[in-house]
Design goal:
mainly alpha
Amino acid sequence: MREVTNISQLTDLFDNALVLLRWALEERARGREVASYDEKADKIRVLLMPVLETAARRARQQRRTAPSVSADGGVPDAGAHALRAGR
């Protein structure tokens, strides 16, 4: 890999690999696929790695169990509830 990338230091290669892995983990945690696209053949090849699937699964579980939050950071419908209660 060092020849292909022209990276001479293993630490630089490792750092770049970690940046790519972190990005891929974040994408899967957001529910997105990580893939390559072959424009000539109009084909998409999805990257499948156990570590990425684990991140996606954990993010789905957290979304199911976490209380939802409104855009302003409060509990959804808190304002509407206060209006109904006459507050």
